[in-house]
Structures are given as C-alpha cells and as structure tokens.
Amino acid sequence: MSVGIINYRMGNIGSVARAISLLGSHPVIVMEKPDDFNRVDKVILPGVGAFSTAMANLHAMGWVEAIYRHVGAAGMPVLGICLGMQLLADEGEENGVTKGLGLIAGRVVPLSKANPRQRIPHVGWNEVRAQAGSRLFGGIPAGTDFYFVHSYIFEAVNTADVAATSHHGVHFTAAVTNGNVAGTQFHPEKSSKSGARLLANFLEGHIA
C-alpha cells in the first residue's frame, strides 16, 4: 500500500513526506504527473498559498481531471492539508471567486469576514475539538492542540461533513470528512505525536 503526495508546485511536500516516512507503514511517492495515480493507493493534497493560484496550477498540470477520475469516481482516499483542504470545497473567495474541486460541499471565505477584529493570519497551536466517533481523530484526546497557519476558513454546507472545529475569534471548521475524502485546516505533519496519529489513522483507512 503506497501513499502519493500530489506535487502541483504549491505545497509543503518535503515535510509531509518526512512525516509519513517516519511512520514507516507506507511507501511514499511524490506524484509529479497525473499518471502517478496508477502507482498509489491513497493520496495527500498539501498546499500553501492562494486558492486561485492553486486551482490554476491543478488545472494546468492536469491534476483536476485525474482527481475526479481516481478520487471522485473510483473512491481513492484523499487527505487535503491546509490549503489542500480548502481546495476540496466548491469555491473559494481568495483573489476573487474561484471554482474548487467540489469534493465536499462548501465555500472558503476570509477568516476576517467572520470576525473583522481578529488578528490575521491565524498562526500557532490551537485546540481542536473532534466530533464524537470521528475515525480520523481516533486515539487523539479531545481538546488536543494542532498547528495552524491560515487566513481563510472552510464553511461547510452540511454539518455532517465537519469532523472537528477550532476557535480563533470565531468557531471554524478544523477538519472535514465525507466518505473517502478528508481534510484538515491544521498541519498534522507539524503537529507532533497527535499529528502523526492522525496521519496514521488516514493511512490505515480511518476517515469518516
């Protein structure tokens, strides 16, 4: 069982790959082209930067069609991290409204829109509250801190898709899950043992 990390020139590829390699349970493949989907059993979509630029890169490199085919149609498990989670939404408002992947119904909006007086970006460790019974957060104590770096938040259409929440001026979605699709607004690869446990849960097939 191998896990692929989609390289679309917008991500923290190295730190994610190292975090998974340290778990020692799955070979890691950095995916450079859409055909690499045929070499992996599950994928991680990392991301650092702007929503609009990220989607432009995904389209230009042929990733969008491949994601729809392997993740959307065939059900391959995917974990979006930070911007990668936001890209799972229907659309994002950063630098104008941009259509997202639409794998989990929702819209990505500025954190400042929810609370204009709150300091942006939100950077640092913050308490995360997972929904009872969340398999993605299995074995992780309630109220565990994870590491965040973001200025935008995911507003899910369906509350059932919200796997965890956090608070920075307002309550916001910290993680989403729906079937084979999952995402975290925080960086599990930078979140010590708890982040490693979450990555292990995903690799072991514990998602929704």
Describe it.
With 208 residues, this protein is α/β, with parallel strands linked by helices. It contains six helices and 14 strands. The chain has a single domain, classed as Rossmann fold. It has an eight-stranded mixed beta sheet. It is globular, with a radius of gyration of 15 Å.
The top level CATH class name: Alpha Beta
**Order of strands across the widest beta sheet?**
2-1-3-4-14-13-12-9
* Share of residues in strands: 25-35%
Cα-atom radius of gyration: 15 Å
N-C termini distance: 20 Å
Would you tell me the structural class of the helices and strands? alpha/beta
Q: What's the overall average pLDDT, rounded?
A: 95
Helix fraction, binned, reads: 25-40%
Number of helices: 6
Number of strands: 14
Topology:
Elements lengths: L2 E4 L6 H11 L4 E4 L10 E4 L5 H10 L2 H11 L4 E4 L1 H4 L4 E2 L5 E2 L6 E5 H4 L7 E6 L1 E2 L14 E6 L1 E5 L5 E7 L1 E9 L2 E4 L7 H12 L5
Parallel strand pairs: 1-2, 1-3, 3-4, 4-14, 5-7
Antiparallel strand pairs: 5-6, 7-11, 8-10, 9-12, 12-13, 13-14
In short:
It contains 6 helices and 14 strands. By secondary structure, it is of the alpha/beta class. Strand 13 and strand 14 form a beta hairpin.
Features:
four-stranded mixed sheet, alpha/beta, 25% helix, 31% strand, 208 residues, Rossmann fold, eight-stranded mixed sheet, globular
